[in-house]
Amino acid sequence: MDNSSLCCTVIIEELSATGNIVAKTQHRNLTLTLGRDEFREMQLKIIFPKKESKYSVKEVLIHKKFVRDGKATIKLPDYKIQLLLSNCPPDKLLVFVKTLQTKLDCLKKTGFLTQRQKLFSGKQHEFDEISPLTLKDLQASHASKVATSTAITKTSSASSSSVTSGLNGTLNVRKRTYPANDNLSSQVQERNAKQQKLNAAHERLMGMTKINGVSPSKILANPVQLTAEQTRVLEVIMRGKNVFFTGSAGTGKSFLLKKILGSLPPNHTFATASTGVAACHIGGTTLHSFAGIGSGKAPLAQCVELASRQKVAQQWRACKHLVIDEISMVDGDLFDKLETVARIIRKSDQPFGGIQLILCGDFLQLPPVVGPGEKRRFCFQSEAWNKSIEVTMQLTDVKRQSDKRFIDILQHIRKGSCPEHVSAVLQETTSKCIQRDGVLATKLCTHKVDVEAINTSKLREINGDSRMFASSDTDEAYAKMLNTLCPVPQYLDLKIGAQVMLCKNLDVQRGLVNGARGVVIGYEADYPVIKFACKVTEVIKSVRWVFKIGGGNTIVRKQIPLKLAWALSIHKSQGMTLDCVEISLARVFESGQAYVALSRAKSLEGLRVVDFNRSCVRADASVLKFYDQLELKHRMLHNGIEDENEIFRPNPSIFSKK
Ligand SMILES: Nc1ncnc2c1ncn2[C@@H]1O[C@H](COP(=O)(O)OP(=O)(O)OP(=O)(O)O)[C@@H](O)[C@H]1O
Ligand SMILES: [Mg+2]
Asked: What assembly does the database describe for this protein (predicted)?
């Protein structure tokens, strides 16, 4: 389906003369198509299961405040109806309403034919799908808006007077031919002349960077283009396949996920990630919070019971497309449990109960977190993976960094190799000063304790009074346990100017998610006011964390969900892009940890490694084997099937299973 069509849920409301709703019908999966009739005027076609209706559009009112949520209202005053669209893929809806509005604006500029003129034309009925929106259309629409209403009136009267003049000959208007004896030809010619004038204006405007303060590329729905390999992944996903797409850090996996989310119906699509920070990047929630099975460590029966709670089960049943970013950190056992829970709750024998899986991540980055003595099992080693994933694809074009030398260094580190020349370059960065315009580098540390020490000393350096926020815990005796379990401290010291991070998903839609960065700018009613990097300013109030401690007992901490953030742990930085970063790698304890830290930097210029040692570069042997097998398949397919050289299904037998 192209940009002129849209498939979604539509409520059609019929309106009285005073605008009251007199009748209402709801239709799931209707197709709306924009087109032009035989007079090149705009038509909106609604395709019902057994019939179709066409509306000539001369006037339209579009309510598009909730386009990003896949909702909009299109009112056609001439027909006294309004269409309430919902569950539309947001990007498609945006293009659709923009096309409707813009093309109509352009058409208004040239004027409409009267009913009488149309009747006498003798033309056959036609419906051509409307051409895609172009920059030229946007500029013509803008020119039409700035024109005065008198100019529009003049255009209309000129159009109607020209009808009688007639013109012999044939005119080509947008590749369509009009016969010589067509008494509308003069009007068409006039329209054509106007179009040429607009084209000329467009040529002049090409040098212009902004229309009404907004750049033309921003007005066009698709400002940043997907690369060819990203487009191929999107195409396979739109064909409904269960896909895992992978690639090095910065190849645009999360970027592509956002595009995928814009192309799927929001009511049935759930965006999740293994960590809060990663979920924040794609505007989603954590996999745990979607699944509703707590930590997922409980026995299967208990997990099923948890997922059977009304609201959780509703989510599972509504889900048709499940997106999981940073899949490398999802534990294999958890993945197996989720697959079983999905089948039970959705009462379906298909893998994951028939949900389409869209997984992305890089297994050479951080692995699942395991407790002491626990065996690590990657997601790709699970039963559920082998039976669900149909297609694996790789992105190879690194977008985060542009310096080839740096990309090459990072590729070595990713595979756990650190030859002399790589080590030398990273050691050289130690002596650099990477402060830029007073903006301090974000410090990435391997351990949480180092993060805390840096943050405390930075806070001390700020002049001004500090305010201390004490948590309210169930019992003082559990404070120590709560300090380990809870992401926020028992005592939180803040000053105006302090760099902070949000530790709870407060409002995912507005970017107030676990990991969101901000600065304290004041206080209101004894609560800190935070200006977040996502451009939201919010008063942050206390929230509760509840932990089960065995024997059916729970402990609770109530605290402001903030912590100091001059320094970050490498685990929290996964998925981020940082301009200016200072890294300490002396105490790396995970495979992939050094790679995650180093690959956050956009350039070597913005990177300082404080204490580089080659032993910190590690890659997990089973993951390397997994990728070697993928490479092998890739090469085999490349030799055989040229078009599908990036699509392959890994051989499950190569992976060790528990
Ligand atoms: N097609 C593209 N055009 C322009 N910029 C892009 C494109 N794809 C990705 N980028 C940019 O590249 C950077 C890295 O992208 P992204 O964070 O999605 O990578 P990633 O593969 O998810 O990395 P990581 O594995 O570290 O999470 C981002 O700044 C993103 O905006
Ligand atoms: Mg990412």
From this structure: Monomer. Interacts with telomerase.
